[in-house]
Write a structure and sequence with these properties.
Shape of chain B: elongated
Helix content of chain A: over 70%
CATH architecture of chain B: 2-Layer Sandwich
Strand content of chain A: under 5%
Order of helices and strands of chain B: EHEEEEHE
Largest interface: A-B, 18 and 14 residues
Number of strands of chain A: 0
Distance between the termini of chain B: 17 Å
Number of domains of chain B: 1
Oligomer: heterodimer
Distance between the termini of chain A: 23 Å
Chain lengths: 320, 100
């Protein structure tokens, strides 16, 4: 199962991207292509979720959403506690890293969905909603924890809420959801070839670029210390397990539980870093970017997703 | 034609600060500014500009000497400690001194 995942073209593209970075190839995506692909992917993810949501029974979303909000609060608190007590990080750095691990990576979500489709595992149609829901609470909580300890108060909450709720990743996901939900399945047929037919190819290309970017973060390992490396591998396993339990308790299917576990295990590297840089300037970006993007993201793509699938299967075999 | 002496303020910093800096400058009453995307390397490492958290901007504006010093002091107090930022003043001569 592990090897099968590694041979997926999307995952292999990530591997050759990492290799390009490590071998110091001069390959570099133009900024506009990176921007264009990320807009396309985020909007497609939202759109697909919205269309599927329009066919879901209203009400069945409620309990999983509550469970997801709970994860969004508990995961950063656990991460913060571990970073402070075991890692000896100061408050701003611990809070900023915790916010990254509580929030989500939409690309990791896209990869778990393509994994489930490939192995023929069905999942609840509304899981995109959980992706959006899990993106925000941890960022807000991280900022709050960091600010509680600093004498220099004066958070510009207006600007910050604007940044978090109207930042491009949340905005694209939510607007895709709305467009898909209101236009529905039949009317969306005309845009389907662009947004769904080409999706996996675009995802593969984007992961090639993410491989290059992630490999550049690896040089940050010289400054981060050994603890953060351990944390960046252990934390997704812990939060993946919490996501599995939350999925099982809220009645998600095996596929849905796998998605929620992967969402819980993933760490943000778009919304969270942008918010933290402004709101918690005392936190060193080398720490949170190296951990979230240099270690946890590759870990999840390469070996994490099959592990979370196995966790979900185990939980369903004993609990479901 | 006599040219007026003004200061050119140059700020090279993380793109994350762009909207905050622009707001600051407008509050100080500068009449205009120009921003370009740049890349380079400094005390806080290489900034290759290859993705969001790694982009660098160069913001320039021309103003009177006293205002330029106020801006520089403000930048030093608010941003110098926590962000990758370089800011400096230089002398320039301009037509239409009333414009700046």
């Amino acid at each position: 199962m592990m090897l099968d995942n590694l041979l997926d073209p999307v995952v292999l593209c990530f591997v050759v991207g990492v290799a390009a970075g490590l071998l110091k190839s001069d390959l570099q995506f133009p900024e506009q292509l990176y921007e264009g692909l990320s807009i396309y992917l985020l909007f497609s993810i939202g759109l697909k979720g919205g269309i599927e949501l329009s066919r879901a029974a209203p009400g069945e979303v409620f309990v999983p959403v509550l469970a997801t909000v709970a994860l969004g609060v508990i995961i950063p608190l656990v991460a913060y506690f571990l970073l402070r007590r075991l890692g000896r990080f100061d408050r701003p750095n611990a809070a900023a890293i915790a916010a990254h691990y509580g929030s989500v990576s939409a690309v990791t979500y896209a990869v778990v969905i393509s994994y489930l489709v490939r192995i023929g595992q069905s999942y609840e149609s509304y899981v995109t909603v959980l992706l959006v829901v899990l993106e925000i609470p941890a960022i807000a909580l991280g900022i709050l924890i960091a600010r509680l300890g600093s004498a220099t108060g004066g958070v510009k909450w207006g600007a910050l809420l604007h940044e978090v709720f109207l930042g491009k990743s949340v905005y694209l996901l939510v607007s895709g959801l709305l467009v898909g939900y209101f236009s529905g399945f039949d009317r969306s047929e005309a845009v389907a070839p662009l947004f769904f037919g080409l999706f996996k190819g675009a995802l593969a290309l984007f992961l090639l670029e993410m491989g290059i970017i992630a490999s550049r973060r690896i040089e940050g390992l010289r400054y981060t210390g050994f603890f953060l490396v351990i944390f960046a591998v252990a934390m997704p396993l812990v939060s993946g397990a919490m996501g599995t339990v939350a999925g099982l308790l809220s009645g998600l299917s095996l596929g849905g539980t796998t998605v929620l576990a992967t969402l819980a295990a993933s760490a943000s590297y778009i919304a969270a870093p942008a918010a933290m840089r402004i709101a918690v300037p005392k936190a060193n970006p080398t720490f949170y970017l190296t951990a979230a993007l240099g270690i946890t993201f590759p870990f999840n793509i390469l070996v994490g997703i099959p592990i979370y699938h196995a966790m979900a299967r185990f939980a369903h075999s004993i609990g479901g | 034609m006599t040219l007026a002496h003004r200061k050119l303020v140059t700020i090279i910093t993380e793109s994350a600060l762009e909207s905050m800096l622009v707001k600051d400058l407008e509050n100080f009453g500068v009449t205009g500014y120009t921003i370009t995307n740049v890349r380079g390397e400094g005390a806080r490492g290489k900034r290759k500009g290859d993705w969001d958290q790694n982009r660098t901007i160069c913001l320039i504006t021309i103003c009177r000497s006293d205002l330029a010093h106020v801006i520089l002091d403000h930048l030093a107090a608010v941003y110098f400690e926590d962000y990758a930022i370089v800011a400096y003043l230089s002398d320039v001569e301009v037509h239409r001194g009333n414009k700046f």
